Amino acid sequence: MKLTFLGTRGEIEARTPLHRMHSSLLVSWRRKAVMIDCGADWAGNVERIGPDAILLTHAHSDHVAGLKTGAFCPVYAAAETWSRICTARIASKVVIRSRCRFELFGIGFEAFPVEHSIRAPAVGYRITAGRHSVFYVPDLVQIRDRSEALRAISLYIGDGASITRGILRRRGKTVIGHASIRTQIQWCKEEGVRRAIFSHCGSEIVTSDPEEAARKVRLLGSDFGVDARIAYDGLSVTL
Q1: pLDDT digits (tens, 9 = 90+) for 52-88
Q2: CA-CA distance, 218 to 27, in Å (whole number)?
Q3: Considering only CA atoms, which of 63, 218, 29 is closest in space to residue 134?
Q4: What percent of the chain stands above pLDDT 90?
Q5: Residue 114, Cα to own-chain centre: how many angstroms?
Q6: Is residue 212 packed enough to be buried (19+ CB in 10 Å), middle (13-18) or exposed (0-12)?
Q7: Confidence band, pLDDT 50/70/90 cuts, at residue 2
Q8: 78-87, 217-226, 230-239: which range is least confident on average?
Q9: What sign does the dihedral 102-108-109-112 (CA atoms) show?
Q10: Residues 106 and 41 sit within 8 Å (Cβ to Cβ)
Q11: Is 238 inside any structural domain?
């Protein structure tokens, strides 16, 4: 399984050559490829990537607005996501169900609900191909079934909105926003995950010195026994 970080920028104004495009991951296996998320930066650019299918995590514009110009391949999303986006130019729309595993081109996917937004309910994907499983979740406060989501995975790909302090808000009894990289690394330690990469990068990473930000994340990881890195546009990982 090959993972290519097509974009690694969160919903922020700042952008750099390392973090220019909205976060999107391309999962490749045996000459087939699935694109996860298609934010506004990708409008008019999806055909250049040429995915065989697109999956969506939630309905925020930095994850779905690239589809406003349409899609030439099937698009998969939860019912809550479909209800919140314009689908006029998407010919093949597939509804997925949480915790129901499905396969695309020999790649297994299972959507796990995560806490992130009330208006745009989100999921993360457990992805399996060959002998390896990874978990991809670009926006979250918490994973509802964390132990199952992270069980025996080779790599956790998480939310890079902030490094040490979460970006959290309360809506009644519900907490929304973004868990810190530090918190997610701690989850990895607790669940026995030894490797983590962070995408959907926020201003704390994008506007800082790249080497210093990378050093901070590596040191946080070493405190918990996790190899922790920051993704950048174009990074490829083969498992």
Answers
A1: 999 999 999 999 999 998 899 999 999 999 999 988 7
A2: 25
A3: 29
A4: 92
A5: 12
A6: exposed
A7: very high
A8: 78-87
A9: positive
A10: no
A11: no
CB 98 within 8 A of CB 125: no
Cα Rg, the chain, nearest whole Å: 16
Report the pLDDT value the prediction gives residue 230, as an integer from 0 to 100: 98
Domain count, the chain: 1
Chain centroid to Cα 5, Å, comes to 10
Q: Taking the CA atoms of 190, 37, 7 and 3 in sequence, report the sign of the dihedral they define.
A: positive
Instruction: Specify if 71 maps to a domain.
Output: yes
Phi and psi at residue 102, to the nearest 5°: -140, 165
Residue 38 lies in a domain: yes
**CA nearest to 198, candidates 235, 147, 148, 143:** 235
Find the CATH number of the domain harbouring 191.
Answer: 3.60.15.10
Contacts of 36 (CB under 8 A, 6+ apart): 24, 25, 26, 27, 54, 55, 56, 57, 125, 136
- Domain housing 218: 2-232
174 belongs to a structural domain: yes
Strand positions, DSSP E, the chain: 2-7, 24-29, 32-36, 53-55, 75-78, 93-96, 102-104, 107-115, 122-129, 132-136, 142-143, 155-159, 167-171, 174-178, 195-199, 227-230, 236-238
